[in-house]
Amino acid sequence: MASDDSSPSPSHSHHRDSIKSSVGNTAANRRRQQAISIGKERRDALIRAKRLCRDSIFEDDNNEKGLDEGKMVIDEEQSVLNARTAQTVQELKSSLSYQGKDATQKTIEALRALRKLLSKSEVPPIEAAIQGGAVPLLVQCLSFGSADEQLLEAAWCVTNIAAGGPEETKSLLPALPLLIAHLGEKSSVHVAEQCAWALGNVAGEDMELRSILFAQGALLPLTRLMLSNRESTARTAAWALSNLIKGPDPKAANELIRIEAITDTIVKHLKTADEELVTEVAWMVVYLSALSDKAISILVRSDVVPVLVNRLVGSASLQLLIPVLRSLGNLVAADAYITHSVLIVGNDITDQVLYGLIKCLKSEHRVLKKEALWVLSNIAAGTLEHKTLIFSSEAVPLLIDLLSAAPFEIRKEAAYTLGNICVGPTKGSDNKSDIIVTHLVPLVKGGCLPGFVNLVRSADLESARVGLIFLELVMRGYPNGEGPKLVEREDGIDAMERFQFHENQEMRNMANTLVDKYFGADYGV
Amino acid sequence: MDSMDASVASPDLGLGFGFPFWVASRRRFKPDDPFFASGNLERELLAKHVALDLTEDEHFQLQMMEIADANLFCPIAGCGSRLEYLEEFEDHYNTRHMASCSVCSRVYPTSRLLSIHISEVHDSFFQAKVARGFPMYECLVEGCGANLKSYKSRQRHLIDKHRFPSSFEFYKKAHPSKHQRQKLQRKAYKGGDAKDHESFMDLDAKKESKQTHPKHYRPKQELKTGTEMESEMEVETKLHHPQTTETKVETNTEAKNEKAKTETEMEVEERIDDIVSGISKLSTVDSSSPSSVSFGHRHSRGFAFVPRSVRNQNQVSKREPTRKP
Q1: Dmax over Cα atoms in chain A, in whole Å?
Q2: Which residue pairs from A128-133 have beta carbons closer than 8 angstroms and sit at least 24 positions apart in sequence?
Q3: Which of A259, A387, B77, B274 lies at a C-alpha separation of 20 to 30 Å from B253?
């Protein structure tokens, strides 16, 4: 604290400090250190972006002993667990109707027991809790003026129920306005954070619930909570917000960008040291940039882009790089402003972006490679200078390599990039895009053809289509009419002829057109 | 195939078929496009949430260590809550001493909800306006701005427009005991600051126990005679469940004949003038809490600690009844 004259003795204050300062970090560390094996249910929950709350958000962790798995309730049979849950719910019910002196305390104890069942079990007995009538009781426990501990435990129970399936989450509808209200600035910050977590889980379920939460006014208080000085609070609020705005309906995203100073807040958080917070906020930018044209327009003109680029270059964390990369990808894809006015060739930031993207190409992570290629392909769709810049960089050998050897979805993106490098932004008199021969020739000589022919053979129609269109480029644009020969050398004719009787009409037409035009009767004559 | 259209155009080759020549253009994906699926999954896999294995015992011990060390208590008279660290004080102060109603001690998580509560439950002026048909009931969702004429219609608005569950109730049934209310009532009429503070503190300290009292209270209006009706109405206007107040107003106008109705209304208005001066002296804790706090259970350890939020408050103004058109 700031102004204390007569502070406690050094050893005491040091002791206290060490406990306090550990709260934020060790919680995060714990998460990083431990991994739980994920069953199918949990995986489904992941796809729906739910997060089970197993540990207290403010629990102190000076006691490292607690890290081993042993204390989890894993050997309890599901039926026993369900029975215990039903019983605990009954206890909660009776404590709520109890009117004696210790009613609040009894209620808190019952809630705590329920909370533990819902957080320490391998498979939380969510269904049993709901069947037992927990939800209306929890709603009662969340009423205004209840003791903080009661609110906290109740919100925690709701959080984990909301981590369940669609029906289970929807059963929490009566609780939603209360959760939103308890985000308020007068609430204990722990209560507010736990409520944010619960709401994040609800929002993660589906668009319908997101709509309801939005209509009930969850956006504004969550945004305010994101401004908190407490990192865990800001992080949780940002995550919940990202779930709230993720669409596909853009209305929440559109509303968020209208909040005053939101861009400044985003920039500020993207610059912090706390990588987890940066990650969650970056996800917010992902959705803003994917759904809201207004947001795109604002973001591309703001400091968000340079900060994202910095992060792209400087970070080693996969968790962080994914949303950072995707935000940039969305922005580049949506608005020409970025390639034309921000990422101008010659500017430092442009070199940095390229560096960052190449770094991702070199990584071993599939997602990073694929999405970096996507961004690169869109930059390559920019000006002639952009194409030349990429062409002259160390990206090319990587691209050719990826085109040949990577999984098909990555090969496809590499193909787009290479193709875009070879095709100009302008069109010739024949109304076809100009072919940049000075790029095309070296790329073919560099060995990209086999990869493209291979793509034509792909089971994925879109990949095959890309392959065919590139082959057309080569055959049309390679100097001295050498194109067809080169294609033939790579078994291109064979690959194209496979489409002769293909069920897809466009593919048939495309392939046949090319074969007829370039390998027709007078070929080789 | 449609996703390809952004990339390739289809001019006619003159062969009846338009070959889609390569066009270098940006490709954009919607957020739920399968393209992003693996990245989305990765996000959640990486955000692992871990089982905590601190037992009850360990947690308790930790707390005890803290408490033994600091021995901090909230200095607000009558509160006495135990605090774990100095930092907790601000949180506690904000929660317990700043968003509670000085009349009935209800605590709200936002200032806005508190002020809505005060208007609707403790402000006769508010009720008078309602009786005259002004839309006084604010929508609870911040930013909406709608005002409704009755508690019920506000409820309906919340359900229809903001998709609140039909079970939602802004007012729970918990009430201070009738004795408490009447005690406050008398104090309000006299308009004494210090006494308000004191009585508030009483309530605050007793808040925990109050919550466990029977939560059901029905107005005894139907049993009262005409003379007592007046004072009963004031009591109820100030402190009752607004729904009850509203129904009461409605049944009043329905059950009585014209003359009695006018009479009652006039009396209410007269009384209101008297009450207003009393009400204006009611305040929330914002004004009655000390602006600086010091604590420490040993004299040698006297911190002068001012919560940030209090320090920021330059002017602490008393609460005025909200005047709405």
Answers
A1: 104
A2: A128/A81, A128/A82, A128/A83, A128/A85, A128/A86, A129/A85, A129/A89, A129/A157, A129/A161, A130/A161, A130/A168, A130/A171, A131/A86, A132/A85, A132/A86, A132/A88, A132/A89, A132/A90, A133/A89, A133/A93
A3: B274
Are A395 and A354 in contact, with CB atoms under 8 Å apart? yes
Q: Which amino acid is at A21?
A: S
Hey, of B2, B8, B40, B301, which one would you mutate to test binding to chain A, going by the most A CBs within 10 A of its CB? B40
Question: Distance from A524 to chain B by nearest Cα, in Å?
Answer: 23
Concatenate the DSSP letters of all residues of B146-197 into one string. -EESSHHHHHHHHHHHH---TT--SS-S----HHHHHHHHHHHHHT-HHHHH
Residue B100: strand, helix, or coil: strand
A374: its two tokens? 């996507």
Q: Looking at residue A46, what is its pLDDT?
A: 66
Q: Which two tokens stand for residue B119?
A: 């208007």
**pTM of the shown model:** 0.67
Tell me the DSSP string of B240-252. S-HHHHHHHHHHH
Task: For the beta carbon of residue B201, count every other beta carbon within 10 angstroms.
Answer: 18
B148 close to B135: Cβ distance less than 8 angstroms: yes
How many helices (H) does chain A have, and how many strands (E)?
Answer: 31, 2
Residue B31 has pLDDT above 60, yes or no: yes
Q: CB B110: neighbour CB atoms within 10 A?
A: 20
Best of A14, A144, A191, A426 to disrupt the B interface (most B CBs within 10 Å) is A144
Smallest CA-to-CA distance from B107 within B284, B236, B293, B292 is with B284
**Interface contact A258, partner B, CB < 8 A:** no
- As a whole number of angstroms, the distance between CA A500 and CA A485 comes to 20
Q: Which one is predicted more confidently, B24 or B81? A: B24
Task: State whether A66 and B144 contact (CB < 8 Å).
Answer: no
**Hey, what are B131's tokens?**
């009786």
Nearest CA to B81 among B97, B100, B104, B98? Answer: B97
Q: What is the pLDDT of residues B271-286, one digit of tens each?
A: 544 554 444 444 444 4
Using an 8 Å Cβ cutoff, are A461 and A506 in contact?
no
């895009």: which residue's tokens? A433
Give the pLDDT of residue A326. Answer: 97
Outline where chain B has alpha helix (H).
37-46, 56-70, 86-96, 111-117, 124-131, 151-162, 178-190, 193-210, 226-239, 242-255, 258-280, 285-288, 308-311
Strand B82-83 with B72-73, pairing: antiparallel
Torsion of CA B113, B116, B117, B123, to 10 degrees: 160
- Distances in Å between the Cα of A456 and the Cα atoms of A45, A72, A442, A490, B19 are 37, 52, 21, 12, 16
Q: What is the mean pLDDT of residues B187-193?
A: 51
CA distance B277 to chain A (A): 28
Burial status of residue A266 (CB atoms within 10 A of its CB: 0-12, 13-18, 19 or more): buried
Residue B219 preceded by cis peptide, ω within 30: no
Q: Do B109 and A51 touch (CB under 8 A)?
A: no
Residues 6+ positions from A334 with CB-CB distance below 8 Å: A289, A293, A296, B26, B28
- Percentage above 70 pLDDT, chain B: 31
B27 near A416, Cβ under 8 Å?
yes
What is the interface pTM, i.e. ipTM, of the complex?
Answer: 0.81
Q: What whole-number distance in Å separates Cα of residue A479 and Cα of residue A490?
A: 18
CB contact, 8 Å: B213 with chain A? yes
The two beta strands, A433-435 and B137-138, are unpaired
Mind listing the pLDDT tens digit for each residue in A370-394? 999 999 999 999 999 999 999 999 9
Residue that the structure tokens 């560096």 belong to: A355
Sign of the torsion angle spanned by Cα atoms A169, A175, A180, A182: negative
> Which tokens is A293 given?
């044209």
Question: Using the beta-carbon criterion (under 8 Å), do A19 and B62 form an inter-chain contact?
Answer: yes
